[in-house]
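Key result, reporting period 2: structure in, sequence out.
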């Protein structure tokens, strides 16, 4: 990437470095200080006469004995940690078994044993039961768990650490590796791209500050999840492409390899990112068929093959277990998901709303992409403005000898992928991602939207009002990002405000 001759570039690079150091330090502090906490406001009052203006729904019972301390927070991450433990310690993806007692025993219908047994520290609703073998496996795509298990195997064999006896060493070490180191690289690469795409000091610095502190990647930095690695993979995929775009050149073979590999990796981590993979592959195939076929596609096949192999090893099926949702793998007796349609179906997982209401809250309401992180309203304007010439650029795609994708085409790609993904989730889901502090299914789009910010903020930079507006939108985003400070698997700020006022309760 070309070195800037702007005299203020050195100062901006210093600002990027300082902000990166602070953001990474915050993420590290969150990890080393992580501990699942019991919040009194989320539990039923101990006696009928105790004050509770807005009791929890559904009711939760306060533990009668001291819970075991843990840095694992929710069913989501426990499901993955259980798989990691089972792979390394037992050599299997099976995290539990259902035992059916003798037919003459009428007192008990079944007993669930193994890692995910109730009270064992890894109990989770994110599991499926093979109806043929009565074995439990995680409902999460297994590739990430396999990669994390590789690190745990090294820690166990080389240092003798156990995920149970030494959980306060194992879990933070792995999260530093999976979440923080890639986050630091992600920020450094973003700084380079923002430096190239921005035109004003204010636009560049505010956009990078948003990358550091204004997105939910920071919120989820201290829990094991697929959303952060997917977002990192998306940026790593587009970095060679956007670097070539900034220098008006084509990518070399290494660029096509890196782009193909990480675009496919993002798909294995977030299945709707298939739209991103295809969205990159089609224009590259049209403009540079030889490089795409020789380098991009073979590199993309590596994570795709790994994901298929891991899934088959875990369940005996090639397709992810998500496609079995609604069937016996999910709706077994005692399953959280089997409550649907019964009086016990309470909470956000069983929200019964029209699609219009659901779409509103998904975009502008209590789980809104724009309401929780309003800085994205500026990014949307940047995407719309940059996309104006996409149709004309598409016609010149094959003739160009420079970068195979122009800034207008990249903005249009981001818009199309975002619309496809948002429409998919609005159509196919009803629970906003469950008990979570933000629209987590969209987090992997974060770097694509961040790259659209400088264009819009640059337009506001000359005006005092414009700068104040951009700074205010960033501040509001930071509030929502840091509000769930103790646990990212909590309702968002807006939903909790609605619950407190009695406006809405799931």
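The corresponding designed sequence is given below.
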């Amino acid at each position: 990437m070309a070195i800037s001759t702007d005299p203020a570039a050195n100062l901006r690079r210093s600002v990027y470095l300082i902000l990166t150091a602070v953001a990474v330090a915050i993420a590290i502090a969150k990890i080393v200080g992580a501990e699942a906490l019991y919040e009194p406001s989320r539990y039923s009052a101990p006696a009928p006469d105790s004050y509770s203006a807005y009791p929890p729904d559904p009711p939760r019972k306060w533990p009668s004995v001291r819970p075991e301390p843990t840095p694992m927070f929710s069913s989501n991450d426990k499901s993955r940690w259980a798989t990691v433990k089972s792979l390394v310690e037992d050599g299997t993806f099976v995290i539990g078994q259902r035992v059916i007692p003798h037919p003459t025993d009428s007192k008990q219908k079944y007993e669930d044993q193994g890692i995910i047994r109730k009270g064992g520290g890894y109990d989770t609703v994110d599991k499926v039961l093979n109806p043929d073998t009565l074995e439990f496996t995680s409902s999460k795509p297994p590739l990430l768990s396999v990669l994390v298990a590789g690190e745990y195997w090294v820690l166990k064999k080389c240092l003798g650490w156990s995920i149970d006896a030494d959980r306060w060493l194992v879990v933070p070490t792995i999260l530093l590796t999976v979440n923080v180191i890639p986050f630091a690289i992600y920020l450094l690469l973003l700084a380079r791209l923002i430096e190239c795409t921005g035109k004003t000091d204010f636009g560049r610095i505010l956009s990078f500050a948003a990358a550091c502190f204004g997105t939910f990647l920071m919120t989820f930095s201290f829990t094991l999840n697929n959303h952060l690695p997917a977002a990192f993979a998306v940026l790593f995929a587009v970095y060679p492409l956007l670097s070539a775009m900034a220098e008006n050149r084509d990518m070399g073979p290494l660029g096509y390899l890196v782009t193909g590999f990480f675009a496919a990796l993002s798909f294995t981590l977030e299945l709707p990112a298939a739209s991103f993979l295809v969205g990159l592959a089609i224009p590259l195939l049209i403009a540079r068929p030889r490089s795409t076929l020789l380098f991009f596609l073979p590199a993309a096949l590596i994570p795709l093959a790994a994901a298929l192999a891991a899934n088959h090893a875990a369940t005996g099926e090639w397709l992810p277990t998500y496609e079995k949702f609604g069937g016996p793998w999910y709706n077994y007796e005692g399953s959280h998901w089997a409550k649907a349609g019964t009086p016990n179906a309470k909470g956000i997982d069983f929200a019964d709303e029209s699609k219009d209401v659901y779409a509103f809250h998904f975009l502008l309401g209590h789980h809104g992409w724009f309401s929780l992180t309003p800085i994205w309203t500026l990014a949307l304007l940047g995407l719309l403005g940059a996309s104006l010439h996409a149709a004309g650029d598409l016609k010149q795609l094959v003739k160009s000898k420079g970068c195979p994708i122009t800034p207008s085409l990249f903005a249009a790609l981001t818009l199309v992928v975002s619309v496809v993904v948002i429409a998919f989730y609005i159509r196919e889901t009803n629970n906003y991602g469950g008990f979570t502090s933000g629209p987590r299914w969209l987090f992997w789009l974060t770097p694509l939207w961040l790259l659209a910010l400088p264009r819009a903020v640059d337009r506001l930079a000359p005006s005092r009002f414009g700068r104040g507006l951009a700074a205010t939108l960033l501040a509001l985003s930071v509030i929502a990002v840091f509000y769930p400070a103790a646990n990212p698997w909590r309702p968002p700020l807006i939903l909790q405000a609605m619950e407190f006022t009695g406006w809405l309760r799931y």
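The chain has a mean pLDDT of 91. The two ends are 50 Å apart (CA to CA). This case is discussed further under Risks and Mitigation.
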